Amino acid sequence: MPGLASETIGIWVAAGSRDESAETAGSTHFLEHMLFKGTGSRDAKSIAAAFDRTGGDSNAITAKELTCYYSRCLVTDLPNITGLLVDMVSNSQLDIEEFERERGVIIEELAMSADDPGDVLFDDFDSLVFGSHSLARPVGATKDQIRVLGHHTVIDHYQSTYIPPRLVIAAAGGATHEEVLAMVEDALAEAGLGSRADVWSGAGTGVDGAGTMDTGDADGGAASVDTGGADGGAASVAKGSHLGGAARVRPEFHSGKSHTVKDIEQLGIMLGCEGLPEGDDDRFIYSVMLTMLGGGMSSRLFQSVREERGLAYAVNCVASQFTDTGTFGIYAGCTGENAQAVVDLAMSEWDRLAQETPSQFELDEIVSQLSGSMVLGLESSAARMNRLARSEIFGLPLESPMDLIERVRSVTAEDVSEMAGRLLSRPKALALVGPAAEVELP
Questions:
Q1: What are the phi and psi torsion angles at 320 (to 5°)?
Q2: What secondary structure letter does DSSP report for 295?
Q3: b/e burial code for range 336-375 (CB count within 10 A of at least 16 → b)
Q4: Mean pLDDT of the chain
C-alpha cells in the first residue's frame, strides 16, 4: 500500500474453538492468552513492552475456526515485531505457574462476558441452533470448563495445531512484498526454525506436509505467506489439513426458542435460520439482501421498526459464516412489551422482500452503499491483512476491489427476492435474553 508508513502483520492459525472436544473446550482461547506469557528468550513483561514501544495496536483474536496474533506498527518497527510474533507462536513456554495465574484472568473475562446481554444472546442463539455440535459452545468455553482444564491439555492443543499446515502469515501496509518475505525469513531463522522452505515442508519440525510458499500479491504492496500450493492457497494444503480437514463434521440446524431471563431493561431478540457458508457462490447476493433488509439507517427493518413505529432503538441483520454452514439472523433490542410486535414486523418485512421484487432504484442504492464500504474498508491495512489471510485459509480467490464491485453490481433484484425466500423457507430459531415476556416464534 504505497505511501503508508505503517504495516499490519498477523500470524493466523487455522484452528478455533470448533476444533475442540467437550474435554478440551477452552484450550484455543486459553492458548491465545498464554502466548503472551513468555518464550525461551522473552518473558511476559518484555513481550508487552516490545508491543507498547511501537505505539501501535497489538492483540489476538480467537474465533470458532481461526486464531490470529497481530500488530500494527511503523514499517521501521516491522522487523522486530515480525520476530516477536514468530517467537511467540513457535516458542511459547506455556509455564505452569503462568498458566494457573491466567486461569483466573480468563474466568474473570468470561464473567464479564456473562454480564453483557449481547454476548449472552449470541452464545444462546448458537447453542440453540447447533445443539450438541462444537459450534454451539462459546469460544472461551464456560467458567466450569476453564476451572478443570488441564495444563497438559493446552500443551497438546498447541503441539497439534500450531503447525505449518495450519499457519498463515499475512501482512499489508507500506513495506514491499520482498521486504516482508525477508523479515519472515530472518524471524524464522532467529526462532531456530530454519528457512521458510524448511518450515512449510515440515523439515525438522516433526510435521508431515507438502506445503509450499505462495507469494501472490494481488492487492499491491500486501504480502501473504501461506502454507498452500501455488495454485490456490489453503485449498491445496496436503490432505486437507487446513481447518481441521476431514475431522470436521457439518452441524445440523435446530429450530426452536430459548429465553435467558435477566433482570435488565431491554429484551434482546435474535430471530434467524441457517445461512450461507464461507465462500458460497451466492455470497454477493447474500450481502445485498442483508444490507437491504437490515444493513443501515435506510434499510427496511430500521425504517419500519424504528423510524416509522418507534418500537426499538437497535435493529439490524447479522450473519456468521463458517466453512460448511452459517447463520442468518435479525437482531433487535426493545422492551418486553414491544417484543412480539418487533418479531412480527421483522417477519413481515422479511416476507415482503421475498414476495415482492425490490425496485431498481432501491437495488442501486444498496449496490452503491456496499461498493463504497468495500473500497473504504480496503484503505485499512488491517482489513487488507485480514482479507489476505482469510483468502488463503478458506481457499478463496483474492479478487481486486473492482472485481468485487462488479460482483455486487451483477446482483439483480430478482436474485435478492429469491435469496430472501430461500432463507424464509428454512426452519426458524428465536433466542431471547432479558426480562420475562411472552414472545412466540412466528
A1: -120, 135
A2: S
A3: bebbbebbebbbebbeebbeebbeeeebebbbebbbeebe
A4: 89
Same domain, 343 and 409: yes
Share above pLDDT 70 across residues of the chain, in percent, rounded to a whole number: 88
Tell me how far apart the alpha carbons of residues 16 and 133 are, in angstroms, rounded to a whole number.
Answer: 14
Q: Is the pLDDT of residue 184 over 60?
A: yes
Structural domain that includes position 356:
256-434
Last residue within a domain, chosen from 219, 247, 275: 247
Same domain, yes or no: 229 and 269: no
CA dist 214 and 201 (Å) reads 13
Mean pLDDT for 236-242 is 40
Give yes or no for a contact between 130 and 273, defined as CB atoms under 8 angstroms apart.
no
**Taking a C-beta distance cutoff of 8 angstroms, is the pair 81, 73 a contact?**
yes
Pair (84, 162) in one structural domain? yes
Categorize the per-residue pLDDT at 225 as very low, low, confident or very high, splitting at 50, 70 and 90.
very low
- Tens of pLDDT, residue by residue over 279-316, are 999 999 999 999 999 999 999 999 999 999 999 999 99
Boundary residue ending a domain (247, 280, 311)? 247
Same domain flag for 228 and 263? no
Whether 252 sits among the annotated catalytic residues: the reply is no
CB of 139 closer than 8 Å to CB of 63: yes
Q: Per the structure, how many domains does the chain have?
A: 2
Q: Is the pLDDT of residue 78 over 80?
A: yes
Please report how the helices 177-190 and 78-91 are oriented relative to each other, as an axis angle in degrees rounded to 10: 40
Choice among 7, 32, 102, 392 that is catalytic: 32
CATH assignment at residue 282: 3.30.830.10
The reply to whether 181 and 269 lie within a common domain is no
Does residue 10 lie in a domain region?
yes
Tens digit of pLDDT for each residue in 320-338? 999 999 999 999 999 999 9
Q: What are the grid coordinates assigned to 363, written together?
A: 437495488
